[in-house]
Specification:
Length: 443
């Protein structure tokens, strides 16, 4: 097991002071910080090897091409793919999902077919498929979520039917942290002959990902949520299915030859990586994957499990009545993501107050609005009986504060967080009246 205090030394940004206090970064589900190994890989690329890939015969271009191709190999190793060319570099998970929906979805969906997703899915996964389903007159169905924040596995046989062509779901919730039962979903999808697409944006950065064992057909994740640069992400697919996919974005770097009447597309993965790619992001992502492999993904998982277990325990011991926590309470069932509300205090007020003490968390509906409405996730106590019909009213009413951990977070940071939460709860009435002033004077 690694020591998070030692890991922290690799992250220059963790030295930063925020409003005079040491940064406590608990916004890792949004994006993670970058170690100097990733930063240096990017600097090294620009300082010594920068050129466009795939094109030039000159030395720099060959070096850049080699580094970029090797980055695909590293990512293939990271997820145990059979081959490097099953790994398509994308900008992020959103980009990967759009690529897939606009290729596989357009090619394979027809009127009356069913697309199944879940109520806990991120908009980035839900919306590309909803859009393509609408274009093809297919029906979108949702696996429900229980009050405890698990998928309703009892309903799988009713929701996934012989009409289902694709099941696309988040492997770990970005709001509840719930780790979903991939095997169970794959089992049911196979029974009806549907393909299965995993949104691994909150999974691959936190748990070992072995695409040979998971049984999925496609998997998408973002590099920036696993120590890599923004603008990096991966779509992995089963070789036979990738081979059948038509093109999405087309242009330079996707073709072998073009005449005025014909196009001969390049082999995998290049025919999906149109135009000059984000070379430095791919190289940086490979450095991030190397970093995580050195730590060991089993250890990353263990570290987060220990932290989330401690965090949940402290929250429930210290604030049994004042704080509502959403999603599973058992650390085994979740990643290091914990969303909560302080009863009676708007989530944005809590987030701003935490920032005043140097703590970065995310507040809002976390790109999972349907989930917030379904579980009535709100600071109001009790929650409203009915979901308001006006979008503005809904957005004001619902939301949560999300703390999310990663390899450099420590127990000491959680203790500090709990101390700050005590102050915030003491100041609750003043904060309700005047959020900003109360923190500035009371803190
Ligand atoms: C579960 C899940 N899916 C998809 C995404 C979209 O990721 P990106 O913004 O990197 O495309 C996120 C981002 O938070 C996420 O948490």
């Amino acid at each position: 097991m690694f020591d998070p205090h030692e890991v922290r030394r690799d992250f220059p940004i963790l030295e930063r002071k925020i409003k005079g206090r040491r940064l406590v970064y608990f916004d890792n589900a949004a994006t993670t910080q970058k170690p100097r190994q990733v930063i240096e890989a990017i600097v090294e690329f620009y300082s010594k090897h920068n050129a466009n890939v795939h094109r030039g015969l000159h030395t720099l271009s060959q070096e850049a091409s080699e580094m970029y191709e090797k980055a695909h190999e590293t990512l293939a190793k990271f997820i145990n793919a059979y081959s490097w060319d099953e790994v398509v570099f994308c900008n992020n998970t959103t980009d990967a999902m759009n690529l897939l929906a606009y290729t596989w979805g357009l090619q394979n969906l027809g009127e009356g077919d069913e697309v199944v997703t879940t109520i806990m899915d991120h908009h980035s996964t839900m919306l590309p498929w909803r859009k393509i389903a609408a274009l093809k007159k297919a029906v979108v169905k949702y696996i429900d979520v229980t009050a405890e924040g698990y998928l309703d596995y009892g309903s799988l046989d009713q929701v996934i039917t012989r009409r289902t062509k694709v099941v696309v779901f988040t492997m770990a919730s970005n709001v509840l942290g719930t780790i979903n039962n991939v095997k169970e979903i794959v089992r049911r999808a196979r029974e009806v002959g549907a393909i299965v697409v995993g949104d691994a944006a909150q999974f691959t950065p936190h748990l070992p990902t072995n695409v040979r064992e998971l049984g999925l057909d496609f998997l998408a994740f973002s590099g920036h949520k696993m120590l890599g640069p923004t603008g990096s992400g991966v779509l992995w697919g089963r070789r036979d299915l990738l081979d059948e996919l038509g093109t999405f974005k087309v242009g330079g770097d996707t073709i072998k030859d073009v005449t005025l009447d014909d196009v001969v597309w390049l082999e995998l993965p290049w025919r999906f990586e149109a135009g000059t790619p984000n070379i430095e992001a791919g190289i940086g992502l490979a450095a991030a994957a190397e970093y995580l492999m050195r730590l060991g993904m089993e250890n990353v998982r263990e570290h987060e499990k220990t932290l989330v277990d401690y965090f949940l325990k402290r929250l429930s011991e210290e604030f049994p009545d004042e704080v509502t926590v959403y999603g599973p309470r058992r650390a085994e069932d979740k990643t290091g993501v914990v969303s909560f509300n302080v009863k009676g205090l708007h989530h944005h007020t809590v987030g701003s107050a935490l920032d005043f003490f140097g703590i970065a968390v995310r507040t809002g509906l976390h790109c999972a609005h349907p989930l917030h409405y379904r579980l009535k996730i709100t600071y109001l106590d009790p929650p409203p009986e009915k979901i308001p019909s006006s979008p503005d009213e809904r957005l004001k009413t619902f939301g949560s504060v999300r703390a999310s951990f990663y390899i450099y977070n420590t127990r000491e940071e959680i203790d500090y967080f709990i101390d700050v939460m005590k102050k915030i709860i003491e100041l609750k009435e003043a904060l309700q009246k005047n959020p900003v002033e109360a923190v500035c004077t009371g803190g």
